[in-house]
Every structure is written in structure tokens, then in C-alpha cells.
Amino acid sequence: MSEPLSSGAEEYLSWLAVEKGRSRNTLVAYRRDLATFEHWAAAEGVDPLTLGPGAVERHLADLRAQGRNPASLARATTALRGLYRFWVAEGLLAVDPTADVRSPKLPRRLPKALEESQVIGLLDSVDGTAPVDLRDRALLEVLYGTGARISEVVGLSLLDLTGDDGLLRVFGKGAKERLVPIGGPARMALDRWLGPQGRPLMEPRRFARRADAEAVFLNVRGARLSRQGAWAAVQGRAERVGLGDVVSPHVLRHSCASHMLAHGADIRVVQEVLGHVSIATTQLYTRLSQDHLRTAYERAHPRAGGVRAG
What we know:
- The protein has helices at 7-18, 24-44, 53-65, 70-89, 116-125, 131-146, 150-154, 184-194, 199-202, 210-214, 227-240, 249-262, 267-274, 279-300, and strands at residues 167-171, 177-181.
- By secondary structure, the protein is mainly α.
- It has two domains: 7-89, Tyrosine recombinase, N-terminal domain (DNA polymerase, domain 1, Orthogonal Bundle); 116-297, hpI Integrase, Chain A (Orthogonal Bundle), CATH 1.10.443.
- β1 (167-171) and β2 form a beta hairpin.
- The longest helix is centred in the C-terminal third of the chain and has 22 residues, at 279-300.
- The radius of gyration is 23 Å and the shape is globular.
């Protein structure tokens, strides 16, 4: 059973779950970080509602001295920063003591990517004809075929699909609009989902909201499919083919980028397709593609092991 926190911290976690839709794993990790912080504050004799920036820095320094790695420290900092921003927004505090607290720098990790055969196996496994099967196949095809973020895909409206120019309109971070090419398999899957045996059978007699009526992807209650609902759909399909531990919507996005580069796409094109603000983000995939190429070469070429001694 999870350890109870102060009422203010419990309200913050409830807000994260209900209003922000944070995953269970994130909430469990934040609860652990906040419990550690509250134990530390009690031992130090300080009140979390009145402490200053120096106290927060001391707490993080103690965690560092205990051997916490940078990722763990960064998460603890994020949890505390979110807690105090929430308290300020709720009027419990006038000043945020974490406003100037910096997170530790993290090394840039290479994104995960599936093998092409794994993606094809996942897509082909969704071959049912029920409306939810047609929806999930279209969802997976669009995620992998466009490299769009899960929030961008569930945010699609029917008007974003209009036209036969092979482009999809998505709205990324900061409501920035971009056009993304959509390939034949994804278009075919969307056509089947939007056809008579798909989306119309999941529509309610009367939509509760106009945004639901305009949504491309619906849930079983006839409302717009949420980010969490789409994530669960992808995870459920992945588990059926033994990929539950490695597949997520973001992994499909990574796989799209990595496979495009592996097949010779220009890095600027991949940057535009994925909606990366900085080319540096896209360059991570170049490194991944090169590593994949090197591994494949070493496996396949009979003289890849180096120069033989004369």
C-alpha cells in the first residue's frame, strides 16, 4: 500500500492524475519522491509550505550525496517543481521556492526503435473486422506511417484528412500546424476505419460535444479517443504479439524516423515530418541509423572483422 502524503501533496497527485492524465508509473515515482522530501523536511524541522530555495537545494544535495543518479535527481526536481507551482496556482503560496532551482543535466539518450519486421508483425496482427479492430489498425498505421506524436494523432479532426494530396494536417507543440505525408497503407487503413463498418458503428446517437463529432478516432463510448486511451490500445495490441515491453506510441514515432533515415531520407525532411524544432534532435536518429547499419554490415560481410595478419 502506498504511503500517504500531506493533504497538499495528495491534492497535487490527484490533479496530475485527473487533469493532466499522468501515467500510473509517473504518479508512483512522484509519490516516492515527494514522500522522501516530506521525510527529509520533518527530520530537518522545516515546513514545506514556508521553506526557501536554499532548503530545496539542500534536499537535492542530500539526494546527490546518497548516490542518486542524474535521471533520478532530475525526476525528483521535476516532482518538487510541479508541487510548488501547483501550490502557488492554488493560492497556498505566494512565491515558488523552486523557481531558480536547476535540474541536473542528463546525457542525451538514443531513442529506441523497433526492427522493421517487428513493426510489420505488429501491424499485420491487427486484422479483425470489428470497428475497434479497424480503429486500432488505422491508429497504428498512422502513428508509424507519419511519425506523429500521440497527442497529434488523437487530436486529428475529420477536416484534417480532406483532400487527396496525400498529406495530413497535424497540430504539434504550441499549436504549430504542419503537413505530414501519409502513405498508402495508412490511408487504406483510415479509409476502412472511416467506412460503413468502422467509425459509424461506434458513433453515439447524439455526440456529447462538437469536438467528439469531429474526431477521427473515437472510443467505445463514442467520444474522442484520449491520449491515454490510444496509449492503452497500442499497448494492448503490442502485448498480443509479445512486444508489450518495448512498444509505445513514442517508439513507433522513433521507428518511423529511424527507418526513413535507414532508407536514405534527408535529415531535413525527417525533421520536417516529425516537427522537430531543432535539427539536433533529429540528428540523434542519424546516429541510431549509423549504428544499425554498422551492426548489419558486421553480421553480413565475410570480411567485416578487420584486416587479417599477413
